[in-house]
Amino acid sequence: MGGKLEKVALKPVNLALGLAAGAIAGVLFKQAWKLASGQDDAPDAGDEDRGWGEVLAAAALQGAIFAVVRAAVHRGGAVGARRLTGHWPG
């Protein structure tokens, strides 16, 4: 497969992987927040009943989980593409 054609062919796969990563990260965040705080719902930045510390801690945890899941899914997709095509996507 050529370079341009390969990139076009992988776009829908990357989009699907990105959506899956977001869904997985959301589930993991909810579970992690429940374990860390004992609360079912994470604070929203606009929730006036929650303090700055709690809101920022939730945002940091959510961002960290999302970044790790996104990196793992991206790396896994690249490894899968290499197995299919014989070379690293790029």
UniProtKB/TrEMBL annotation:
<keyword id="KW-0472">Membrane</keyword>
<feature type="transmembrane region" description="Helical">
    <location>
        <begin position="52"/>
        <end position="73"/>
    </location>
</feature>
<keyword id="KW-0812">Transmembrane</keyword>
<dbReference type="Pfam" id="PF14019">
    <property type="entry name" value="DUF4235"/>
</dbReference>
<keyword id="KW-1133">Transmembrane helix</keyword>
<dbReference type="InterPro" id="IPR025329">
    <property type="entry name" value="DUF4235"/>
</dbReference>
<protein>
    <submittedName>
        <fullName>Membrane protein</fullName>
    </submittedName>
</protein>
<feature type="transmembrane region" description="Helical">
    <location>
        <begin position="12"/>
        <end position="32"/>
    </location>
</feature>
